[in-house]
Amino acid sequence: MRYLTAGESHGPQLTLIVEGLPSHVPFDKKKIDHQLARRQKGYGRGRRMQIEKDQVQILSGVRFGETTGAPVALVVENKDWTHWKKVMSIDPLPEEAEKRRISRPRPGHADLNGAIKYDHRDMRDVLERSSARETTMRVAAGAVARLILEACDIRVGGHVLRIGSVEAKRLDFPWEEWTARAEESPVRCLDPDAEQQMMALIDQAKKEGDSLGGIVEVIVEGVPVGLGSHVHWDRKLDARIAQAIVSINAFKGVEFGIGFEAARRPGSEVHDEIEWSEATGFTRRTNRLGGFEGGMTTGEPIVVRGVMKPIPTLYKPLNSVDIDSKEPFAASIERSDSCAVPAACVVAENVVAWEIACALLEKFPADTLNELKEQLNRYRERVLRF
Ligand SMILES: Cc1cc2nc3c(=O)[nH]c(=O)nc-3n(C[C@H](O)[C@H](O)[C@H](O)COP(=O)(O)O)c2cc1C
Ligand SMILES: C=C(O[C@@H]1CC(C(=O)O)=C[C@@H](OP(=O)(O)O)[C@H]1O)C(=O)O
C-alpha cells in the first residue's frame, strides 16, 4: 500500500489518496473520524483546534460501506480557511502578499531552510506545508490501516510517558483498562499524579511564553511472528517504523523495548529468552527488545517510543535574523500550541498502524480482505506447529 497527502495548513482542504487497499474492507467513516477527533485533543493545544472539526469526506474507492480495491480518496476541510482566503490566494495578489510576508524565521521550525532551499522570500510558503496540520491525513491513512488490522485481530494503542521534566510511573494494566485511561486523560497519561504535574507544567510554560516536548509510547498487540525481513535493509520493519516515527513533525528519536538502556546492560539482561509449549508454540520470557529481532516481529507486542522536541513557535520568541535587512530580530510569532505531545501520541499510533498493515500485505499479498485473512490464519496455524 502507499499514500500521498496534499494540502496547506490554511488552504481550503487536506487531501489523502491511499492505493493498494484490498477490496471488501468494511469502511466505517465514523472510525476514521474518531481517530481524527483523538488527534485534535490534548491539554496544551492552541486555539486552532477550537476552530477545526476534522471529519473526512470520502470521494472514491468505497461503495456500499466497503472498499472496492480502487484508490481511496479522502479530504478534510480546513474550517479556518475562510479567515485566510486572501493570504492563501492561488491567484496573484501582490499587495496582500507584501503585507503578510513573513521574514523572521523561527528557530526549530522549517522556515529558514525551506525558504533558502525553495527560494521563498515569504516564509509562509514553507510553514504552510511544514505545519503539523498535515498529520491529520497521516492519521486518516493510519485509521484506514486500522480497518485492516482490526479484521486481523491486531490492536494498536498509545500513551504519554513524559512531558518536559515530568515522567509517568510505569503502571501495568490490562489492555482495555490502560487504553481507556489514556483516552480519558487530558495528557494521555496513565499515572494520575504525573498527569496533574504535566498539566501544571504546561500551564506554566504557556504563561512564560515557552513550549514543551515529551515521550510517547505505542504498543501493538496481536502481530504474528515474521513481519518484516532480515534479508535486506529496507525490508526491516523496525527500521520502517523508526522512519515513520521520526517523520512526525518535531520527533527527534525512537527506541524499541528497553531502547537506549540496552547500551548499559550486559547481554544476559537484554535478550529475551525463548520458551515453548504445545498450546502457545514459541514465546519469550521477557519482551525487552520490544517485539523485534533481525528486523522481524517476534510475535511479542511491539513496544516503540518516540521523543518529541518542544514546539518551535514561542510566544516569548528566540533571537533570529530578518532575511531582508539581515538585522537581528525576535522570531515571528504564529498562533501556536504550547505542548502537542498528547496529540502527537495519536499520530504515532496511526503511523505505526500504517506500517504494520503494509508489512502484513507484503507478507500476505491480497486483493480481497478474505484472501488476507485466510493466508494469515493458515500462517498462524503453521507458526503454532513449527
Ligand atoms: C501534533 C503537532 C502539533 C504541532 N503544533 C505546532 C505548533 O502549534 N507550533 C509549532 O511551531 N510547531 C508545532 N509542531 C511542530 C512543528 O510542526 C515542527 O517542529 C516543524 O514542522 C519542524 O519540523 P521538525 O521539528 O521535525 O524539524 C507540532 C507538531 C505536532 C506533531
Ligand atoms: C493545525 C494543526 O496544528 C498546527 C501545527 C502548527 C505547526 O507549525 O506545526 C502550527 C499551528 O497552526 P496554526 O497557526 O494554524 O494554529 C497548529 O495549530 C493541527 O494539528 O491540525
UniProtKB/TrEMBL annotation:
Catalytic activities: 5-O-(1-carboxyvinyl)-3-phosphoshikimate = chorismate + phosphate
SUPFAM superfamilies given in the database record: Chorismate synthase, AroC
Entry's EC annotation: 4.2.3.5
Keywords from the named record: Amino-acid biosynthesis, Aromatic amino acid biosynthesis, FAD, Flavoprotein, FMN, Lyase, NADP
The protein's name: Chorismate synthase
InterPro entries named among the record's database cross-references: Chorismate_synth, Chorismate_synth_AroC_sf, Chorismate_synthase_CS
Residues noted as binding NADP(+) in the record, renumbered to the chain: R39, R45
Cofactor(s) needed for function: FMNH2
Pathway the protein contributes to: Metabolic intermediate biosynthesis; chorismate biosynthesis; chorismate from D-erythrose 4-phosphate and phosphoenolpyruvate: step 7/7
Residues engaged in binding FMN: R129, S130, S131, N249, A250, G294, K309, P310, I311, P312, T313, R335
